[in-house]
Design the sequence.
């Protein structure tokens, strides 16, 4: 039997706050299978981004276990977590986090190069399918928000990571553009066989995913 791409069991996470620690996650468990698409919904402040950061090995839970691509995160030091992240996870953030000094082509290639999996033909194809071919020599500041978002998606997918984690990847786009970008993400994920978890506020977009998970008061409902 193949292992799930992600397993998380009983995750808790608190943050310090002026009036005492605030518990953001209070025992969250989930699994993500290969090729599965999961929408993560919940009110603002319900802990969606926090959970995504834990699953992507960007932060560690206070308690609970996570396996990512077959590896337990618990025993890993920061260097080992960073390596696993490079190899196994593509991340798309709401703020894109493109590298200002690199043009579009180099931004798309960046993550794949770090992972040692740069494939020029695939990068070119991705740029074309994301409608970026004419823009490959532009710099992030010369792009619209929607164009930057597409570069961020291309960068996350260029290394064909087994796991793609996206935090409101279409949050700053108008409805029609958001639909197009999501169509493309779902198609590319299906082609690469990756598993996808996307945080979204949109019920309309969440309905397009294979599975949905709703967070409320730090727990899955
Ligand atoms: N690094 C941090 N330090 C302190 N508090 C934090 C930190 N990160 C998140 N929080 C708090 O944890 C709670 C959950 O935040 P999180 O960003 O996970 O929610 P969210 O569901 O993604 O919200 P939104 O939909 O508004 O993006 C919030 O109350 C937030 O203020």
Sequence:
């Amino acid at each position: 039997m193949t292992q799930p791409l992600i397993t998380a069991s009983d995750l808790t996470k608190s943050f310090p706050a002026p009036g005492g620690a605030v518990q953001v996650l209070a025992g969250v468990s989930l699994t993500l299978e290969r090729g599965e698409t999961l929408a993560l919904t919940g009110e603002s402040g319900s802990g969606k981004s926090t959970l995504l950061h834990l699953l992507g090995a960007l932060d560690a839970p206070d308690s609970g276990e996570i396996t990512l691509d077959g590896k337990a995160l618990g025993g890993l030091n920061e260097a080992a977590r960073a390596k696993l992240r490079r190899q196994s996870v593509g991340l798309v953030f709401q703020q894109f986090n493109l590298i200002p000094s690199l043009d579009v082509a180099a931004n798309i290639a960046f993550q794949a190069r770090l992972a040692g999996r740069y494939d020029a033909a695939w990068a070119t194809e991705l740029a074309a399918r994301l409608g970026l071919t004419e823009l490959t020599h532009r710099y992030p500041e010369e792009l619209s928000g929607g164009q930057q978002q597409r570069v961020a998606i291309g960068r996350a997918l260029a290394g064909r990571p087994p796991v793609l984690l996206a935090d409101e990847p279409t949050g700053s786009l108008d409805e029609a553009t958001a639909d197009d970008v999501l169509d493309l993400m779902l198609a590319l994920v299906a082609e690469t066989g990756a598993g996808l978890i996307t945080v979204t506020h949109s019920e309309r977009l969440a309905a397009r995913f294979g599975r949905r998970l709703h967070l409320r008061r730090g727990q899955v409902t």
In short: The chain has seven helices and ten strands. Strands lie at 6-15, 22-32, 37-42, 63-68, 71-72, 89-92, 163-167, 195-199, 211-216, 219-220. Residues 25 and 70 are 23 Å apart (CA to CA). The mean pLDDT is 92.
